[in-house]
Design brief:
Chain lengths: 160, 291
Amino acid sequence: MKIALTVNGRPAALDVAPRTTLADCLRHALGLTGTHLACEHGVCGACTVIVDGAAVRGCLTLAVQADGAEVTTVEGLAGDGALTPLQEAFRRHHALQCGFCTAGILTTLHALLTENPDVEACEIREVLSGNICRCTGYIPIVEAALEARAAYRRGGDPAQ
Amino acid sequence: MKLPAFDYACPETLDEATALLAEAGGDAKVIAGGQSLLPFMAFRLAAPSLLVDLRKIAGLDGIEVADGEIRLGAMVRWRDILDSAALARALPLLPAAIGHVAHYQIRNRGTLGGSLAHADPASEFPCIAVLCGASVDVVGAGGHRTIPADELIAGPMETTLEDDEIIVAVRFPRWPEGRRWAFDEFALRHGDLAIAAVAAAYDMDGPHIAHARVAVMGATDTPQRVPPAEDALNGRAPDDDTFGAAAAAASAAIEPTEDLHAGAAYRRALVGTLLRRALAESCAREREAAE
């Protein structure tokens, strides 16, 4: 089926089979392999992307359902190649180790902080329950998110 | 796991959608958020030949809090329920329960119509609909009908919907002022499927409990009211003895399910613990509000 969507600000016109998930479409049709797939049934959160402003599971969204949507992947966060404040905070706090889950956590937290730059630690922890990390533990991730709030409070989109 | 192959249709009217479902004769599935259906397809627990997507059909997404009732469109997402200030005032039990639904990303797509049609015994929304005596409006190729929520749920992952029927809205009766409510759930991780959960609502008639409703989910094969626990509450003072008696009655009355996460005896005990705790919290909430 023919679909047209905007990915990281650029228009994309594609022909996909209905069974193609948005995550597979991004990886295989568009070469955006920053979006990772692990469980492929909505448990691990590695494939999280932002669709029309909302963080969603890329493996539980069909590419055909994203027809007409604006999609942001981890590649779209640092538009000009410099790290965003959230990514900088991840580096400073050692909030990643192997990095496999990081793309999904960055997109999740970017959507969360954009919606609510004053989000409290307890809500950050609750949101992170949807993203599984098996290396670092979550404490540095929560610390990085708390630090990044300041950049989101200053207004504008700290990811562009 | 990759999904099995299927055809996909995205009609713009309910008439078109019900006609497509009727034509497929039970081999098609409706997709809304897809947050339960797509994992089922990934595991090959479902392999429909056709998915009929509701996303372009207008009028399925509203939250209307009117004088007599609250009407929620079938495409209302968990996120919308949690963001609604009107619902938080009119039916606070609902957002309290929905806060336990899955995770942030799933709550951004999952819908209440999808949850009802999926009829997972560990799902919060069907339990609250059953507890509150909600009505479910459905449309099929032959017209529309209204089904009481407890008659819609026929068993685990089973409903009384016909093959060509689509849930369009759920209607909750408005609550009287001062109705108290309780909800508590136990899952291995926050957002995982409930091993057991309880919901309750009651009014105060002077110093005594009246119109008590108690429901259990996750521990039984369907979300269901527990009349012996309701009887243990009605006409009594809202104190520890009453709540303990209601908890014991609920534990004794249910037929708990068993799976690899928990045995029947554990679920039976858990239901009692959760109900006693949730009812105590319903009183503590009143005291806090009064201060």
